[in-house]
Amino acid sequence: MNVQENVIQIKERIEKACERVNRNPKDVKIIAVTKYVSVETAQLALEAGIKDLGENRDQGLIDKYEVIGNEATWHFIGSLQSRKVKDIIDKVAYIHSLDRKSLAKEINKRATQKVKCFVQVNTSGEQSKHGLQPDDTISFIESLAELPNIEVIGLMTMAPFVEDENVLRDTFKHLKELQNIIIHKRLPFAPCTELSMGMSNDFEIAVEEGATYIRIGTALVGKEY
Ligand SMILES: *Cc1c(COP(=O)(O)O)cnc(C)c1O
């Protein structure tokens, strides 16, 4: 696995996707998802210039943080149990999986400063996926007004595991539509300028549909376990 080479190729693909829809590639940030690889491989991503790392389990994040520390900007991207919040809160810069009020309250309580959160929405309709139902998303975000340490910087979704490009595209479009509604509400605690969407198999479509953070594991650092 040549991480450096992968980064170059992924950046080229992002640039081409941006060209197709007239976006600036600088507006798309790459998160290297390191959940399937060793800390040594995660460090190769840093050496290749990717400073944003994503983990989906608290223990995975804690283990890698012990070695890498604040050389990386850490993103928590997996479903988060409330009782684990205290273990990761001082290590992560972003939480991509805010999907319930109890979790928001716990983050608010444990945080020592504002935490940048993405509200996770299930725009694919798949039962197995985490995240709020689209219809519940706006009222959920409005209910966060009372929690001063929560800043909703954007929305996050996971596309279904399908080949059909139209299904993927619709999933991402739906997230963008929700984002527009929230932006128009001008909630001071929810600027909602960011969209976290797109993974190894679908990131070009996500970029075409407005992703500002893409979360790439396999195509960037590979899969060791
Ligand atoms: C694993 C994971 C990714 C990356 O998946 P790849 O298909 O390996 O790129 C992105 N987002 C979340 C939430 C994940 O759990």
Automatic annotation (TrEMBL):
A Pfam family matched in the record: Ala_racemase_N
Cross-referenced CDD domains: PLPDE_III_YBL036c_like
Highest taxon above the source species: Bacteria
Keyword Magnesium set for record: no
Coiled-coil residue windows: none
Cofactor: pyridoxal 5'-phosphate
InterPro entries: Ala_racemase_N (IPR001608), PLP-binding_barrel (IPR029066), PyrdxlP_homeostasis (IPR011078)
UniProt KW keywords: Pyridoxal phosphate
GO MF annotations, alphabetized: pyridoxal phosphate binding
Domain Alanine racemase N-terminal: 9-222
SUPFAM superfamilies attached to this UniProt entry: PLP-binding barrel
Residue numbers of N6-(pyridoxal phosphate)lysine PTMs: 35
The UniProt record lists the keyword Transcription regulation: no
HAMAP family linked: PLP_homeostasis
Similarity-based family: Belongs to the pyridoxal phosphate-binding protein YggS/PROSC family.
Protein function: Pyridoxal 5'-phosphate (PLP)-binding protein, which is involved in PLP homeostasis.
Protein's name according to its UniProt entry: Pyridoxal phosphate homeostasis protein
Organism of this sequence: Bacillus solimangrovi
